[in-house]
């Protein structure tokens, strides 16, 4: 291969790739920004953004996410966005879009590295652009877009580390993994998978001992660097909550040994169905075929990336106590590499014909349809039920929040008011606090459990306007002093957010 020609393509090719790059980036921002708030705020977003507001206002709470066992990096990234953008939900989702953009750049670079071709970069970027799994999480203010970005750049750095064995790369890799550990506990997989770099290393019979010793030393430097980042969290008195939170989602070794197969079959069914749903059946089949083809071409690289998918996938299947589709997102990047390389190889060899064009159309059409529904009619998007319930159709969904906040904001202009919420953590009261927390005329009171109607709220209704919001309860107990203002349906479900005026005690 002529490296000079590869790095300095003919002028018309330079402009072609430039136009492609600009077009893909433009399509990325259009697809991520259009109808950005069509999916309403949901529970996790309300929690994370409220934490960011509190941490931004009071430096003593910069580690506030640790009070719930969540790493702080995403919350810190929300700070500048909240300073610049008045709407907290838009601010948080913009952060995820920026993370998604760096993932787009990262997968393009990884494609360029693996294929040694600009076409590989184009294929990687287009795959990221059109896969619905990436689209939906780039548009939500949750941890997964950020963790996806860290994953793809970790893959780049770990590939360079394995093939070049340099101290600067070891330290950069340690920093990337450290950033992952400050984002999600799943970053421990990056450390577990690090020995797989031995597959990629250029072994020679005469120097293998020296190379291995060098690998051990640089791997130790990488590990120490990652722990420097991780141990920042020890500055908080709430650091120990991390382990407690992890045990809510994963079995401890003792629990696992007591019944190793407890959730395995159910988890495998759930994870597989979610993965296929978000990738769509044609793309998933294409990935499987690409893995078979690529194993014949370059077994080492294929096994490396395949292991980066298989080990976390089955690790989660064995140890997962509570799982969600978004836990799979970071695993999709290595899974796409065989397809990226095979498609680029077909393009490089100019094998594109009507058959390949028809296959491409069969693969792309379901993805584009899925994307279109996410952007314009998410209630019809064929996303897994576990996500549609959270985002659209059940109590974690924020349908009605925007309207209730607008109503309360308008009412507050007439005088002071108090609003009670069904719940003390989560969507309520945090969504209200996000938008009305600084309004001096609004007092927010949270209640849980609501076994009887709050007497203090009814007493306050004598002197000021008082309201009550129910997130789960669909029918208040008879005799409660409430007058329904409006109910807001959650997606396509039969559940509603109920908004009431509290009647004063007579």
A few lines on this structure:
This protein has 506 residues and is of the alpha/beta class. It has helices spanning 3-7, 11-33, 43-57, 73-84, 88-115, 118-130, 132-138, 143-164, 167-181, 188-193, 197-200, 208-230, 241-249, 253-258, 264-279, 281-297, 299-319, 329-348, 354-376, 385-393, 401-412, 427-436, 455-460, and strands spanning 417-422, 442-447, 465-470, 482-489, 496-502.
Which structural traits does this protein have?
506 residues, alpha/beta, 2 domains, D-Maltodextrin-Binding Protein, domain 2, five-stranded mixed beta sheet, 7% strand
Q: What's the story with the biggest beta sheet?
A: 5 strands, mixed
Strand order of the largest sheet: 2-1-3-5-4
Strand content: 5-15%
**Residue-averaged pLDDT, rounded?**
93
**Cα radius of gyration in angstroms:** 25 Å
Unreliable residue runs = none
Task: Describe the fold and architecture.
The chain has 506 residues and is an alpha/beta fold. It has 2 domains: 3-388, no CATH class; 401-502, 3-Layer(aba) Sandwich (D-Maltodextrin-Binding Protein, domain 2), CATH 3.40.190. It is built from 23 helices and 5 strands. The protein has a 5-stranded mixed beta sheet. A hairpin with a 6-residue loop joins strand 4 and strand 5. Helix 21 (401-412) packs across helix 22. The protein is globular, with a radius of gyration of 25 Å. The mean pLDDT is 93.
């Amino acid at each position: 291969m002529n490296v000079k020609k590869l790095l300095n393509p003919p002028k018309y090719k330079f402009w072609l790739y430039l136009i492609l790059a600009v077009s893909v980036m433009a399509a990325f921002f259009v697809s991520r920004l259009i109808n950005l708030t069509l999916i309403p705020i949901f529970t996790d977003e309300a929690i994370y953004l409220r934490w960011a507001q509190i941490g931004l206002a009071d430096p003593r709470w910069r580690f506030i996410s640790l009070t719930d066992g969540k790493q702080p990096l995403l919350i810190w990234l929300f700070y500048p966005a909240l300073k610049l953008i008045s709407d907290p939900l838009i601010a948080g989702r913009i952060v995820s879009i920026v993370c998604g953009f760096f993932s787009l750049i990262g997968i393009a670079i990884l494609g360029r590295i693996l294929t040694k071709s600009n076409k590989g970069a184009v294929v990687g970027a287009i795959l990221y652009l059109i896969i619905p799994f990436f689209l939906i999480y780039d548009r939500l203010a949750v941890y997964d877009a950020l963790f996806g970005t860290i994953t793809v750049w970790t893959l780049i750095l770990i590939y360079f580390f394995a093939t070049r064995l340099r101290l600067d790369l070891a330290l950069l890799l340690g920093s990337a993994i450290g950033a992952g550990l400050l984002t999600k506990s799943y970053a421990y997989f990056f450390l577990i998978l690090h020995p797989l770099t031995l597959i990629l290393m250029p072994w020679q019979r005469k120097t293998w001992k020296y190379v291995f010793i060098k690998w051990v030393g640089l791997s130790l430097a990488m590990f120490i660097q990652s722990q420097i980042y991780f141990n920042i969290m020890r500055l908080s008195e709430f650091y120990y909550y991390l382990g407690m939170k992890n045990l809510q989602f994963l079995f401890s070794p003792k629990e696992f040994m007591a019944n190793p197969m407890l959730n395995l079959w159910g988890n495998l069914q759930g994870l597989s169905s979610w993965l296929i749903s978000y990738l769509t059946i044609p793309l998933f089949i294409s990935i499987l075929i690409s893995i078979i083809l690529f194993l014949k071409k370059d077994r080492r690289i294929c096994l490396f990336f395949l292991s980066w998918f298989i080990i976390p996938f089955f690790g989660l299947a064995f140890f997962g106590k509570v799982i969600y589709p978004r836990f799979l997102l970071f695993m999709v990047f290595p899974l796409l590499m065989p397809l990226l390389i095979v498609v680029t190889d077909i393009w490089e060899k100019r094998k594109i014909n009507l058959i390949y064009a028809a296959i491409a159309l069969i693969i792309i059409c379901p993805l584009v349809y899925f994307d279109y529904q996410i952007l314009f009619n998410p209630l019809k998007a064929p996303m897994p039920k576990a996500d549609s319930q959270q985002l659209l159709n059940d109590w974690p969904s924020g349908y009605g929040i925007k309207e209730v906040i607008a109503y309360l904001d308008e009412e507050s202009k007439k005088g002071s008011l108090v609003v009670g919420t069904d719940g003390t953590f989560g969507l309520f009261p945090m969504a209200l606090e996000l938008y009305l927390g600084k309004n001096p005329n609004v007092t927010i009171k949270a209640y849980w459990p609501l076994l009887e109607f709050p007497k203090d709220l009814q007493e306050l209704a004598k002197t000021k306007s008082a309201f009550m919001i129910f997130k789960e309860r669909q029918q208040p107990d008879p005799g409660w002093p409430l007058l329904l203002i409006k109910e807001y349906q959650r997606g396509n479900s039969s559940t509603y957010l109920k908004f009431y005026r509290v009647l004063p005690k007579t």
